[in-house]
Amino acid sequence: MCFRCGERIEDSTKFSIEHKEPWSKSSNPKEKFFDLENIAFSHTTCNYIANAAILSEEDVQQVRQLLSAGWSARSLGIEFGVSHKTILKIKHGKSWNPV
After folding, report:
1. Which residue in 92, 98, 71, 6 sits closest to 43, CA to CA?
2. pTM
3. Residue 43: in which H helix or E strand, if any?
4. Among 86, 92, 62, 65, CA closest to 74
5. Candidate from 29-33, 44-48, 71-75 with smallest mean pLDDT
6. From the CB of residue 92, how many other CB atoms can be counted at a distance below 10 Å?
7. Residue 93, beta-bridge partner list
8. What's the pLDDT score for residue 18?
9. What span, in angstroms and rounded, lies between the C-alpha atoms of 86 and 99?
10. Domain extent listing, the chain
11. What is the Cα–Cα distance from 77 to 12, expressed in whole angstroms?
């Protein structure tokens, strides 16, 4: 069952593992990251939509600046608590275009 939409995940190619609560914004990120109670399964699309929603406009501007400075999408994903695919969509203008 998808943590985000509650629907059954039938296609293993559209399956992701995520944190229920963003660990990077926790008061104890290391503990939150490794907390198995904070792990959930979701459709990749549901995970993407949820991750895109947790970034503020300020976060997205900072992501763009750090990408320009040479940071990798994976490093930024870890830093901001989102997937590297979310960062790549920002980089390529497929998400957050107005910012």
Report:
1. 6
2. 0.49
3. strand 39-43
4. 86
5. 44-48
6. 8
7. none
8. 85
9. 15
10. 1-54, 56-99
11. 23
Q: Which residues contact 43 (CB under 8 A, 6 or more apart)?
A: 2, 4, 5, 7, 9, 14, 15, 16
> CA neighbours within 13 Å on the CB side: how many for 96?
24
Identify residue 83 by its one-letter amino acid code. S
Which residue's entry shows tokens 């997205």? 60
Look-up of token digits 């985000």: 4
Here the contacts of 80-85 (C-beta below 8 Å, separation 24 or greater) are 80/24, 80/55, 81/19, 81/22, 81/23, 81/24, 81/25, 81/51, 81/54, 82/51, 82/52, 82/54, 82/55, 83/16, 83/47, 83/48, 83/51, 85/48
